[in-house]
Amino acid sequence: MIVAVVLVGIGWIAISQEPVTAIEPGSDLTEAPIPGYLAPNFVLYTTLGEEVTMDDYLGRPVVLNFWATWCPPCRAEVPHFQEASVKYNGKATIVGIDQGEPSSVVTDFANSFALSYPLLLDQDNSVNRQYGVTALPTTVFVDAQGVVREVYTGIINGAVLQDRIENLLNEG
Amino acid sequence: MFPTISLGPLVLPSAGIIYILGAWVVLSVIERAAKALDLDAEHTYGLAAISLVAGFAGARLVFVVLHWPAYQENLTSIIWPLTSGYEVWGGLFFALVAAFFYGRARRLPFAATLDALTPGFLAGFIVVSLADFAAGPGYGTETNVFWALDIFGINRHAVQIYEIIIALIAFIVWWQALKRRQFEGQLFLLAMATYAAGRLFVDAYRANSPLTAGGYHFVQIISLVILLICLIVLARMVTRGEQDGDQAKEQPQS
User: Fold this and answer.
1) I want to staple B114 with a disulfide (CB 3.0 to 4.6 A). Which of B17, B142, B178, B188 is the partner?
2) Which of A13, A105, A108, A156 is most worth mutating to test chain B (most B CB atoms within 10 A of its CB)?
3) What's residue A27's pLDDT?
4) A70 vs chain B: nearest CA distance in angstroms?
5) Across all residues in chain B, what is the average pLDDT?
6) Mean pLDDT of successive 10-residue stretches along chain A, which has 172 residues
7) How far from A165 is each of A63, A143, A149, A162, B232, CA to CA, in Å?
8) In this complex, which of A5, A33, A73 lies closest to B84 when CB atoms are compared?
9) Which residues lie across from A64 on neighbouring strands?
């Protein structure tokens, strides 16, 4: 019986194997915050009052980091995003999307952490809902064609962040 | 699905609420199971409660230590439970250490206590799947079956619901085996084997399952290993029981 379980188990695991190649876009390019689908478009304002859309960033990989100043894990990972924004300047775009806080709070935080990448204000949380953000921080990796490649929930370290960006750059 | 619950001006994360309510359900189920097995219900409940608290606090403590710069200017956030920031392995370590010392101090029988804790484990699995379903970070593969869930306009397997059904089946197995138990630990092994077999099957329908380098589902591999361990130990215990029975029959004759 145990031999049968081993054979059936290994067989089922083999059948369930996922392709290790790059994620292909879905059958229809619906907008959804799910790997393989188009990253939902949005219109938000930066802390400087400039209007920005998701489409503005297409053409190079985009990393959307959903965060808030009151969220300790977000504060822990912010230096990694700053470092990556400098390292990949001109090759990939790092964007922070703040969850429902006033511009002054976000600006003060950005100044104290010397952040230079764009910080967008999602004051009514509509983009957080659009991207199905259920916990902070959440990081969404989008390729140059605007297809979501990975949704990473929880704190991300610098090595993982740079690894994901490198993968997107190598595929592009 | 329902990532947040609004109570007037207060918006609470549904997963956090489910986990808090789930902890109460887990403890209640364990207490009832201990009574059904004629174990010391008070101390079995105490073991589970202390392990839960130690695991919860330990998971946050390890995370805070690893990310101290993020907390040092905002110390109250250390104790606010509804934000992310838990180190799972740290929590597991603290929970096991607490369970070990409590069980030893109270002289709880290891295998029989595992039998009593099993419904609590299953309830815990249900809570995790329910939180995953409500908060929405997990999702199934695409399908056209009539019970598919519409997630962002795409029909997908309701994989968290499958997981909950498996835990319920494992609980039925535990319940059915309760009155026919041959040896201590049997209920735990039977229920865990059932749950592992089920997860081995349904994880194929999870679209965002962690994968090994070769693209194999990590959860399936772990499930197969647990299933085999449970079956091998069960087989050995049954064989040993039969041998003991045979020896008992032979002794009066000699």
Assistant:
1) B188
2) A13
3) 46
4) 8
5) 87
6) 88 83 54 82 93 92 93 87 94 94 93 94 90 85 89 78 86 70
7) 8, 9, 11, 5, 45
8) A73
9) A95, A140
Which residue, chain included where needed, has tokens 């876009």? A25
Q: Provide the pLDDT for residue B164.
A: 96
Number of Cβ atoms within 10 Å of the Cβ of B221: 16
Cα(A49)–Cα(B157) distance, integer angstroms: 42
CA–CA distance, A104 with A89 (Å, rounded to integer) = 26
Question: Closest approach of chain B CAs to the CA of A106, in angstroms?
Answer: 16
Whole-number pLDDT of residue B55: 94
Radius of gyration of chain B (CA): 21
3-state helix, strand and coil shares in percent for chain A, rounded to the nearest 5? 35, 20, 40
Percentage, residues of chain B above pLDDT 90: 56
Phi, psi angle pair for A97, to nearest 5°: -115, 105
List Cα–Cα distances, A143 to A25, A155, A157, B180, B214, in angstroms: 11, 21, 20, 57, 22
Q: A20, B215 in Cβ contact below 8 A?
A: yes
What does the pLDDT read at residue B109? 95
**DSSP conformation letters of A31-99:** B-SSTTSBPPP-EEEETTS-EEEHHHHTTS-EEEEEE-TT-HHHHHHHHHHHHHHHHTTTTSEEEEEEE
Provide the shortest C-alpha distance from residue A33 to chain B (in Å). Answer: 8
pTM: 0.73
pLDDT value for B244: 75
Q: Which of B8-12, B38-42, B60-64 has the lowest mean pLDDT?
A: B8-12
Q: How many CB atoms lie within 10 A of CB B212?
A: 14
Q: What pairing do the DSSP bridges indicate for beta strands A93-99 and A119-122?
A: parallel
Of B229, B232, B241, B231, the C-alpha closest to B184 is B241
Residue B6, burial from CB neighbour count under 10 angstroms (0-12, 13-18, 19+) = exposed
Residue A125: both structure tokens together: 């949380």
Res. B70 pLDDT band, cuts 50 70 90: low
The pLDDT assigned to B207 comes to 82
Question: Can you tell me which residue has the tokens 């994989």?
Answer: B159
A98 and A67 Cβ atoms separated by less than 8 Å: yes
**Cβ distance of B85 and A16 shorter than 8 Å:** no
Q: Which amino acid is at B224?
A: L
Chain A residue numbers with beta carbons less than 8 Å from the beta carbon of B208 are 35, 151
